[in-house]
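Listing S7. Sequence submitted for prediction.
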Amino acid sequence: MKPTLLVVACLCSALGQAQTRPQGPVSESGVINGARFRIDIPANWNGGLVLWAHGYSPPETPYRIAGEEGVRNAGAQLIPVLGAQGYALAQSAYSVQGLSIREGVLETEALRQYFVHKYGKTYPTIFAGAHGGGLITYAAIERFPESYDGAIAFGGIPLPELEWVKERMFDMRLLFDYYFPGLPGSVVDFPDDETWASVRVQAKKLVDAHPERAKTLLRMYNLRNTDELWRCMGLYTSILKDLNRNRAHGNAFDNRNTIYRGSDDDAKLNREVPRYKSDPKAVEYMRQWATPTCQISSPLLAINSLFDPVVPSQDTHYYDEACNRAGKTDLFVQMWMDMKGESPTPSAEGFALIFKTMTDWILKSKRPAGGELTVGVK
C-alpha cells in the first residue's frame, strides 16, 4: 500500500467522522507529519491497543518498519503475538532517527490519537518499547499518563539520562581515548563522516592491538570482554554525536569536578584526563526529555536482560528508588531474563507471557512478582 501523507488537519477532521469498528483483519500504513506508521488490527480485536516504540537506530540509517520487505524486527514479531491475544498494534518509525526521545514520545502519541479518531476508543492501551524505545516508554508514560493504562519497558535507561549518559557513555569514551588514543575526534568533537560502524571498526583495531590496556575499562564498566568494549564505543559515540549535533545542540556533560576511580593509577589518570564544561542549553534538553521521575499513574513493568553491556540491568534500581520517593512502588515491577546477545529481546513465547502479565495487572489488578522470568529466554 502506498503511504498517504497525513497532516494535523486530517487528525482534526477525523474527530467529526463516524467511527466504525473494523470487520476482519486490518493493516494500514501511512505517514503522520513525516513519521511513517503501521497499524495492525486482528479479526478478533478485543478493543485493546499496544503502541510499540522501536529502539535506537543511527541517524545515518533509515529505519525499516514492520511490513516492509524483509523486516524481521521486534515490531514485526509482535504482530502475530499480540493478534493472538486480540490486541491491535500501532508503531511509528519516527520522523528522524538517533536518540529520538522527543520524536518517539510525541509521534507515537499522535499515532495513538489517529487510531482512536479512526477506529474508536481503546482499552486497555499499553505503551511498550525496547532499548531506546524502552527509554521512550518511561518518558511517554510520565508525560501522557492519561493516555495509557500500562507500559512495558524492555531495557531502556530508567534513571536521569544526564547522569547515566555522562557516567556510562561520555566517561567511557573519554577514558577509551585516554587508554587507546587514535579514534577521530573526541567526546565533544565529532567528524562529519564518523558513523556507528566506522567507530566500531577503528575501536576494534585499537583494542586488538593493545588488549592489555583494556583491563582497566573492563573492570570499571563491568564488561566481560573486549568485544563488548569496542561495540559499546560504536554505539555510545553515535549517541553522543547525535546529542551534540542534532538534539541537545551542544555538550550536555561536565566533568570538571569528576574524580575517576578504579584505574591502576587514579592520581595520574585524574591529572591527565581532559576536562570539559557543559552547555546550559544542552543540559536543559536532557532535563526536559530524558529525566524519568516515576510520576506515573498506571502500572509499569520493566523487563531487562540480566547482563546487558549497553544498558546494565542494575541501573533500574534508580527508577525503583524514584518510585519509592514518589510513593509509587505498587505501580512499578522489574523482572529480569537470562538472555544472550548484543541487543537481547524475548522470544515470541516470552513476549506473549509478558503482555498477558501486563493485561492481568491492568484488568484484574494482579500485580506480578519481580524476579526472574524464565519463559521465552533466547
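Caption to Listing S7: primary sequence and predicted C-alpha cells for the chain studied. The chain has two domains: 5-159+292-372, 161-287. The domain at 5-159+292-372 is CATH 3.40.50.1820 (Rossmann fold).
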